Amino acid sequence: MPIRFIKAHELWPLRHKVLRPHMTLEDCDYPHDKDTDTFHLATVEEGRILCIGSFYKESSPKLKGWKQYRLRGMATEPERRGAGLGTDLIHFALEHLRAQQADVLWCNARENALPFYAKLGFTTHGGEFDIPGIGPHYLLSIKL
Predict the structure, then answer these.
(1) Domain locations in the chain as residue ranges
(2) Closest Cα to residue 72, out of 124, 26, 19?
């Protein structure tokens, strides 16, 4: 299934549906969505966006790495979860980040997503922490 680079506003509906249904669509316009070093990926089938992820050139002070990127807003249409769309999207992103000479990809993940990221090779750093208004998360990273 094709993975392509998209504009931020194209992924807001899926972000809203899966990650922020209790907020407005405008709340899905994340800070740094339009930065020049940011890129957004989507898995698309017959014009329908099924899986998304946004990647920001942002460092975590808790991690070592000279060119870090942060993954935010990873989401898959609920009826398509478990079909490998997220795995394929992350593999595509990792290859792109390696070509950009990035050395770390990190994210804050919800507990129910930990097995997905562990399967891809991400490691957990520290314990659970709360993101106000969103809920409990864990810091994860993978070296590139």
Answers:
(1) 3-143
(2) 19
